[in-house]
UniProtKB/TrEMBL annotation, chains A, B:
The keyword NADP is assigned to this record: no
Family stated for the protein in its record: Belongs to the group II decarboxylase family.
A Pfam family that the UniProt record links to this protein: Pyridoxal_deC
Protein name: Glutamate decarboxylase
Cofactor(s) it depends on: pyridoxal 5'-phosphate
Key words of the record: Decarboxylase, Lyase, Pyridoxal phosphate
Stored NCBIfam families: NOD_PanD_pyr
Gene3D superfamilies, per the entry: Aspartate Aminotransferase, domain 1 (3.90.1150.10), Type I PLP-dependent aspartate aminotransferase-like (Major domain) (3.40.640.10)
Amino acid sequence: MTVSKRAAKATEESLHRIFTIPEAPDSTLGRIEQEMSQNLAGFLGAHIAAKEMALSEIERDFACSEIPEQPTFVSEHMHHLLNKLVAQSVHTSSPSFIGHMTSALPYFILPLSKLMVGLNQNLVKIETSKAFTPLERQVLGMMHRLVYRDNEAFYQQWMHSANHSLGAFCSGGTVANLTALWVARNNLLKANGDFKGVAREGLYQALKHYQYDGLAILVSSRGHYSLKKSADVLGIGQDSVIAIPTDANNKVDCQLLRAKCQELTEKNIRVLSIVGVAGTTETGNIDPLVEMAEIAQQYQCHFHVDAAWGGATLLSEKHRSLLKGIELADSVTIDAHKQMYVPMGAGLVVFKNPSSVAAIEHHAEYILRKGSKDLGSHTLEGSRPGMAMLVYASLHVISRPGYELLINQSIEKANYFADLIDQHPDFELVTKPELCLLTYRYNPAVVQSLLVSSDKKQQDQINVLLDKLTKFVQKRQRENGKSFVSRTRIEVQKYHGRKTLVFRVVLANPLTSKDILTDILAEQIELAQESRNVLPKLISLAS
Amino acid sequence: MTVSKRAAKATEESLHRIFTIPEAPDSTLGRIEQEMSQNLAGFLGAHIAAKEMALSEIERDFACSEIPEQPTFVSEHMHHLLNKLVAQSVHTSSPSFIGHMTSALPYFILPLSKLMVGLNQNLVKIETSKAFTPLERQVLGMMHRLVYRDNEAFYQQWMHSANHSLGAFCSGGTVANLTALWVARNNLLKANGDFKGVAREGLYQALKHYQYDGLAILVSSRGHYSLKKSADVLGIGQDSVIAIPTDANNKVDCQLLRAKCQELTEKNIRVLSIVGVAGTTETGNIDPLVEMAEIAQQYQCHFHVDAAWGGATLLSEKHRSLLKGIELADSVTIDAHKQMYVPMGAGLVVFKNPSSVAAIEHHAEYILRKGSKDLGSHTLEGSRPGMAMLVYASLHVISRPGYELLINQSIEKANYFADLIDQHPDFELVTKPELCLLTYRYNPAVVQSLLVSSDKKQQDQINVLLDKLTKFVQKRQRENGKSFVSRTRIEVQKYHGRKTLVFRVVLANPLTSKDILTDILAEQIELAQESRNVLPKLISLAS
């Protein structure tokens, strides 16, 4: 054998090995797995570096653009990943990281995910997913029933019907919202006479046929950015997403919404959809869905509810009334990877009418044959993993009352934290929790008094400084790595609608304790003192 | 304590447990994990039922639409999943299942997936993914370089640049193709004078502004159905996807393509994009990309290459020339979950020009702030898991030469199987492999002779019977569960372009042996004899 042939032979053997020989339990990867299985929190705590490294520094470890010409041993590569990647990842499940919408996962999810990967099903068609297809349909049925509460006969009739679908699984809320608006658009601009429908002829012909001067999607100014993205993708245009101002509680102002519908209609702009938000990303508030549904009814438009965050609240008998009116929506987005404690990649949308999805039906020769039950004929995505299994297992292991408890606890915790902030002289609660989200800022008592007695101009000056302080504290706290709150900029009514920087907190991690919350405030006070110019300037203004 | 309070307390404790107490190694889930870790093929072989159950029967196990009111113990639920779900799933990694594009996975992928889930990063923004963001950018850089082979300086300049992106990760090829066409549409119909661009004003205003009577996307008749879906979603309309006939080798006919471009241009229909296919889903053939690029250049339109399947061939020095011209494409789709042996959920698109993605840029207050390096500002999806880590690890552990070997072996195996079929008197090879895909059918020698001597009408009659036979054999083989080939319907030139049913085979599983291939043919011959009416009728026609 020549040298090169021998090398090729060696590569071939090592390749065969990685497909056939399992990782030994005492290999690096085997040990990592064991560590994770035995103590996930411990593993993450031990391997994720607390102190934040600058991104530019991390980038140096990911600078090579060439695909390696030499294979690396798995164990060697695992050391590399632990040192360079895991160490510099984000501890999303830490109970003191209360700024994310991702939180801790139940233990059983980890081995179950491994099973999902090992099975490597493709949900696009039955041929590559068999029982996963009815399972996904069942999960969609359960989530549909959670929202719409139709009777048993309804679900027996539609859940497994080939030409119907109670919803669509997708990678996340953005694709779910996009799917809902796609369905709405195609149903509004459907085939009619000579016109073959927007799905076939496109928007230009559709608007010409229906003689509209444009379309509009109406949502509160707290609506998620994915709606604008969807409007762009769908060819409707971002400017067609019209932001309706909210009231003091971050809920859409229905009077303004109605007036805007009327105004657009008079201008021959067709309202395609009104979108209610059930748990805004920034403040967690829920729109007045019943009234919105009435307006949608009046203007004969699609009513979509973006409950990506808040939808799981329906699992709580105690709090589900907060989402009253959601059952009137034509479509509802819910992210299982948020408050349902499933890993990233599990969004879904449910449709009130099982026939809605006919508007986006697709077929192909080799798959999705007409009359088949292939899920791919009604989804935006094609090939997709079997994430539905993780939702299914969670619904069974945690059960509805278990989820209720988790949801109720989160809301209680948010109220507790809100009280803590409210009662503290040097903090200002900016938005009260309706679900488990709230916003606040560090604002020394003397400055708060000054703000009350100031005119708008002076208030603005003070708020500019407070914004700086909030940003400083949030960044510094993140960099220190002990705890994390996020920050956002929201219009605050008492400051004449000024866009104000605030800490944003999401209290969904069941392991976040009251002590942790107390510590976070204490750390923020400390950090605020470290701001070299800002805090002294504020204090001097106030004295 | 009252009974209900006690019950609530118990639920609370059990909930706390699932978040804090690991699954014991001797629990059901622990044992499943061990079984999988030690012998994945054995685990799948033991738990997936060979004999297929009717879908209607499986559906009975997934019929309940109510979310459980009682929690189930994890171990109990795992038994349920093994019996009802895993048993009735599809053995996609079996070496004798050669009809899928998903195949076996290397062992290290399983624990690595568990690590990915445990870390639960969200790639939409740095705040929830930190080092995963530069890692994903690096993988996109590597894949970009694989396609475009730009120099080192190019990658150092653009790979980590905040306002640029060499591509986008996404859940699969459909979203990748959609993203590419979205970028193409927005760049073509960009802001101009008073017109603010299609992204903001939508397609109706865009076509009015640019005074086009429509848009068109041109692709061979073998193009993937996701292109029509994309055209629908993007508001261009499915009918705007124009299928150009292929030659005898399933490659687009460039003369017809050019003529169609000219015809459309004269009709004031703007060609938005020409799409080359590099590995058609049904036959694995590759379009003449160099010539297509020339035509795209001439008509000043976007040139996209859908290399979801074939893109990985670029890793083979021996075969990469098959994709010559791919470096001229403006965008290229590659699915890592196909020939890169990564689990379901890893598609990507790369863009020649790092500025292309500016056309789909999105920002929001709380994330994706301008100037940030958040990946979410250039992706269709929002929240996304850290799948890039699995591609990254595979590129390092397998390395370029390792992938080359896998690719080369697959192609050799396909050629071997093609010879086997060709030399067998009772089989008819319908399409020869260019990559590792081929199509064929069972067709007894006497019937083959008859076909040659028949006129078109008689050929059609025979082919109708042969279609029945192919369907019968394919279904029966699938139901028996020992092996699996898929089936599709393709136009066959020697039968005057008649859409003919064929077996479709994908030989990407490195563990598929020559013996398995021989056995599959033997089984098909046996099964054909079981067709009650069809085979005897064919034979009697021929004698």
